[in-house]
Design goal:
Radius of gyration: 20 Å
Largest sheet: 7 strands, antiparallel
Number of domains: 2
Strand content: 5-15%
Order of helices and strands: EHHEEHEHEEEEHEHHHHHHH
Helix content: 40-55%
CATH topology of the largest domain: Four Helix Bundle (Hemerythrin (Met), subunit A)
Distance between the termini: 56 Å
Organism: Streptomyces olindensis
Number of strands: 9
CATH architecture of the largest domain: Up-down Bundle
Number of helices: 12
Pfam families: BtrH_N, DUF4872
Structural class: alpha+beta
Mean pLDDT: 95
Low-confidence stretches: none
Protein name: BtrH N-terminal domain-containing protein
InterPro entries: BtrH_N, DUF4872
Shape: globular
């Protein structure tokens, strides 16, 4: 059996930040999960529906692996990404770093992993691999999936080779922290303002605060849109609260990131953003409860109320991001 020494196999709430935490702690950089998420400008929103979809998708973060690239750019990390169409080369790309004593991040389809509790296809799942033997691979996944887990190498190969939405070509990656890397604190202002700009100025109406407003109008139709409301609506609610989001569709993570930033950066704009995201997080949890109740009861009034709450969230998050977009201004202190 080959394993990387000194790996802290600690699972957290979200898959990509869990893997990033494993890789960076091994490099001597220990950041909280909210800080990893926030420095990676991870918060977003997308409402997506289409003829080929069984049910609308609500996403609360940037697309898979964008968070990792953002974080590496922000902190001056050395990010080495490898992709290939060859399963043999894909395994060599993983085994080589592990043999050399370095854990590796993998993007794959979680459906094929032996230990995964929810057998749905998700090609944007990210794990950290820190060891293997002839039969199994040893991974770190989220806390809810078990933290330190194992899966057969055959299942891992299938997960990495999967094709479909959000999948990558056997993507693997490593991170290194150079000696002259900037401090995490130096990345706070550019990370927050970049996230705010993207949220406030989305290229299409499905994204950012415009997407939340659109969701508020369309959620009222979900009982008619669903093939099986008793299944689809509670599942949508569970995805907001439990599917690696940290609760409240990632708003809890961003709220806690802003609170951590406020401890080291004195800014009224930051304090305003934190206060409003604390409010938004609670409202998102209310929406999830209303959607779940609509599915189990068939009462459309729950969805009408959820739509009204989503309208409030759109305004709250827009105001929060407007405040946070001013974080780099000289007038922000105080």
């Amino acid at each position: 059996m080959t394993t990387v020494e000194g790996v802290e196999a600690r699972g957290t709430q979200h898959c990509e930040t869990t893997a990033l935490g494993v890789l960076l702690r091994h490099e001597g950089l220990d950041l909280s999960e909210p800080m990893l998420f926030g420095l990676g400008s991870g918060l977003s929103f997308v409402y997506w529906d289409g003829k080929a979809m069984d049910f609308p998708f609500l996403g609360g973060r940037v697309k898979p692996f964008e968070l990792t690239r953002n974080l590496a750019d922000r902190l001056g990390l050395e990010l080495l990404v490898r992709e290939t169409s060859s399963p043999r080369r894909a395994w060599e790309n993983v085994a080589g770093p592990v043999d050399a004593g370095r854990p590796v991040g993998l993007q794959l389809d979680s459906h094929h992993l032996d230990y995964f509790t929810s057998k749905v296809h998700f090609g944007g799942h990210v794990v950290a691999l820190y060891g293997y033997d002839e039969r199994d691979a040893f991974l770190v996944d989220t806390e809810q999936q078990g933290g330190a887990v194992s899966t057969s190498r055959d299942s891992l190969a299938r997960a990495r080779a999967a094709r479909g939405p959000m999948t990558a070509r056997h993507r693997s990656f490593t991170l290194a922290v150079p000696e002259n890397a900037p401090s995490p604190e130096a990345g706070i202002v550019p990370a927050v303002t970049a996230c705010a700009h993207a949220f406030l100025h989305p290229p299409i109406a499905n994204l950012g605060h415009r997407g939340i407003e659109k969701a508020g109008k369309l959620v009222r139709t979900w009982l008619r849109r669903a093939d099986d409301p008793g299944r689809d609506l509670p599942q949508a609610a569970a995805l907001m609260e439990k599917a690696g989001t940290g609760g409240a569709l990632f708003r809890n993570l961003y709220r806690d990131f802003l609170a951590e930033c406020a401890a080291s950066l004195d800014s009224r704009h930051l304090r305003t953003g934190h206060r409003l995201y604390a409010q938004a997080a609670g409202l998102w949890t209310d929406v999830a409860a209303l959607v779940a109740r609509a599915g189990t009861s068939g009462d459309e009034r729950c969805l009408v109320e959820a739509g009204a709450v989503l309208g409030d969230i759109a305004r709250v998050e827009r105001d929060a991001m407007r405040a946070l977009s001013l974080l780099g201004d000289g007038a922000s202190a105080g």
